[in-house]
Write a sequence for this structure.
């Protein structure tokens, strides 16, 4: 078989939707063996009429987390580039960091104590995947605790403190990077379970 025949066969299979979908995050930790449900229910079907009533609650919680994170980084960037003053920065970001931390702890707690153990009982072959997500939660807890300590300092800091802003910014970026990978891998593992059960 020539290279061009192979290419056109691959193209035909892709056109027919026969190629297995790959996880969406470029640094996904999900292994091929864990994707049997993802292959049955790939992301382009998650919000279709047949599945949306089972999948949208989880996706909308994640969308809310991503939005909160985006707003925090926007405020931080606005202050660092001189678009807003210290007092406005502090009054805008401090309560939002508290809400962000609260929402994430609340969401992780429900996953750790309810959903993940239930999913592992339903699909023991996915246990190693959920263990990765559990470890992400532990790592995120550490970052959120550090963020909380810095935010408490910010709330009581009446004079401009650029070093503190940089420390907060770095923690926000670290949390954002980890969450981007975590939320995407989690959706690729969980949403097909919700949709297909
Ligand atoms: Fe999670
Ligand atoms: Fe989640």
């Amino acid at each position: 078989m020539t290279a061009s025949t192979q290419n056109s066969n691959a193209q035909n299979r892709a056109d027919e939707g026969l190629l297995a979908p790959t996880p969406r995050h470029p640094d996904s930790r999900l292994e091929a063996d864990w994707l049997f449900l993802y292959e049955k229910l790939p992301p382009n079907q998650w919000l279709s009429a047949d599945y949306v009533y089972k999948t949208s609650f989880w996706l909308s919680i994640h969308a809310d987390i991503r939005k909160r994170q985006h707003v925090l980084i926007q405020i931080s960037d606005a202050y660092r580039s001189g678009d807003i003053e210290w007092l406005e920065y502090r009054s805008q970001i401090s309560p939002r960091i508290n809400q962000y931390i609260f929402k994430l702890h609340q969401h992780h707690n429900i996953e750790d104590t309810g959903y993940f153990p239930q999913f592992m009982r339903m699909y023991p072959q996915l246990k190693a995947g959920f263990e990765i997500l559990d470890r992400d939660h532990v790592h995120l807890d550490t970052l959120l605790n550090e963020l909380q300590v810095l935010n408490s300092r910010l709330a009581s800091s009446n004079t401009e403190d650029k070093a503190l802003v940089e420390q907060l910014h770095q923690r926000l970026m670290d949390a954002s990077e980890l969450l981007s990978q975590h939320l995407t891998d989690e959706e690729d593992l969980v949403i097909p379970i919700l949709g297909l059960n």
